[in-house]
Amino acid sequence: MKWYHIADKTAEKRIEEIVHRGLRIRKKDLAAVEKILADVKRNGDQAVLSYTRRFDASDMTVESIRVTPEEFKAARNRISPGFLKSLKTAKAQIEAFHRLQRPRSFIHAEREGTFLGQLVRPVDRAGIYVPGGAAGKTPLVSSVLMGVIPARIAGVPEVVMVTPPTPDGSVNPHLLAAAQTAGADAVFKAGSAWGIAALAYGTGTIPKVDVIVGPGNVYVTAAKKLLTGEVGIDMIAGPSEILILADESADPEFIAADLLSQAEHDVLASAMLITDSRELADQVSKTVEGRLNTLERKAIARDALERYGLILVVPDLSTAFDLSNRIAPEHLELLIEDPMAHLSRIRHAGAVFVGPYSPEPMGDYIAGPNHVLPTAGTARFASSLSVDHFIKKTSLIYYSRKAFLREAKSVMKLASIEGLSAHCQSVAARLKNLKNR
């Protein structure tokens, strides 16, 4: 893994390549997804069935799209007690964190004759998309927990999940165990863009939802992008990324392992180290190369590092934090002395991992905060998936007659400036009524 000094002419170009790699959806992919959405909207279950048979499970039937109680029971019998114990631990800690996010309704009566407030209500139904994970071979159980649990904490009455079936028409038992443990009401075998479309429009078998959350491939992402407004979505997320800020106190083995933990995700994943130590940069570069050959997904990781890997040496930590805020990474690790003293410097990041024993995978699975995070610089304005994605906030307004009279003329003045005469008349009609009493 090559390292650069911030003063190198090529360093700035490399930074720009990473910062602006973004999420690219080709026009032909958008066009293909538009056709799928239209097909599902028009033909419902039959369209979902057709795509599922073509791409996932050739023997699927409409009747087998919904996972049955018998399938859930069989899944429970196939998982290990150790997995179930870990699943329950993760669930408890994710629930505990997301409970802290719950907003409350309120009524405020500071001005005489008025009360103003906010009603917090959950959506009626939420849809959770969970990727297939190499045709069920690598079940993404953490995506189940991170989607279903905050919806449940928000109070959503019905939470459904869609995921691609395996070639034999089943769903990996670990996914079903996770769905049941997290509290999903139903699981449906439908993936990719047609799974998203089914949630957005409803199909007869798969119910229409109000909000869709969860990660997926480019077709899932394109579908969510095109359906924004038809339903609520969590975010348009891109490939995974990590930025590590480290000084000479950091362990190069930890850094190399953490960089590779993100590089193995995808050839478009980004893994970056910014440090004020030349010696550490050199050590990490060599350690990454040695560790690469031990990975099952070494070809993917190597490709990702060649495309979007970066080790950058800067003169001081102040420069490092400035660059971090410019990049606005999905995951930011602080492997520096006294990291708590530097938290105020962070303005833009999806999640921050503090100290040598808080590696990013702890957040992926068990720490508690959600691992669905803004990517590709969107942490400048976006936040992680949370309870807020599943609720609505409705304003509440009451005026007494006395309070109305006190503020009516001000409303009429402001409305007249905007040229909205009917607004003025709405207020004037009440003034006339009160005057004639």
Written account of the structure:
The chain contains 16 helices and 14 strands. It has 437 residues and is an alpha/beta fold. It has three domains: 152 residues, Rossmann fold (3-Layer(aba) Sandwich); 207 residues, Nitrogenase molybdenum iron protein domain (Rossmann fold), CATH 3.40.50.1980; 35 residues. The model has no long low-confidence stretch (mean pLDDT 95). The longest helix is centred in the N-terminal third of the chain and has 19 residues. The strands form three sheets. It has a six-stranded parallel β-sheet with strand order 1-11-10-9-12-13, sandwiched between helices. Strands 6-5-4-7-8 form a five-stranded parallel β-sheet, sandwiched between helices. 46% of the residues lie in helices and 16% in strands.
In summary, what is this structure?
This protein is α/β, with parallel strands linked by helices and 437 residues long. 46% of the residues lie in helices and 16% in strands.
Helix content: 40-55%
Give the beta-strand count.
Answer: 14
> Which regions contain 5 or more consecutive residues with pLDDT less than 50?
none
Overall morphology: globular
- Strand-residue proportion: 15-25%
CATH architecture classification of the largest domain: 3-Layer(aba) Sandwich
| Structural class label | alpha/beta
- Average per-residue pLDDT, rounded, comes to 95
**Count of spatially separate domains:** 3
CATH class category label of the largest domain: Alpha Beta
What is the topology?
Elements (H helix, E strand, L loop, with lengths): L2 E3 L3 H11 L7 H17 L1 H11 L13 H10 L2 H19 L6 E3 L5 E9 L2 E5 L11 H14 L3 E6 L9 H10 L3 E4 L2 H10 L9 E3 L4 H10 L4 E2 L7 E6 L5 H12 L6 E6 L2 H15 L5 H11 E5 L3 H11 L3 E5 L15 E4 L5 H6 L25 E9 L1 H17 L3 H15 L2
Helix pairs in contact: 2-3, 2-8, 2-9, 4-7, 5-6, 5-7, 6-7, 8-9, 10-11, 15-16
